[in-house]
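Take a specimen:
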Amino acid sequence: MADRPFSDLPAFFYDPLAAAAIVAPSVSTKGQYYVDVDSNPGINFGASVRQSKDLGRFPGGDKAGLITVQTAVDTAAFYELVLSRLAQ
């Protein structure tokens, strides 16, 4: 493997689904949602809240950002993509 740059460094793959969504967008279904994270101390601290773009911002979500969220994954296509790339 000496012909591959950086082949002596350890490899990390933190979020293969996010990577797959970039290189093969058809692997997942996406939608537009307003998303916010609960930053109030308590049991829900860190929980994310989402609401469809069609419904608008939720109560108290005036700072929620409109983002693209993956809502479903074609698992067979996802595994095929990941395994084929790892085998290269």
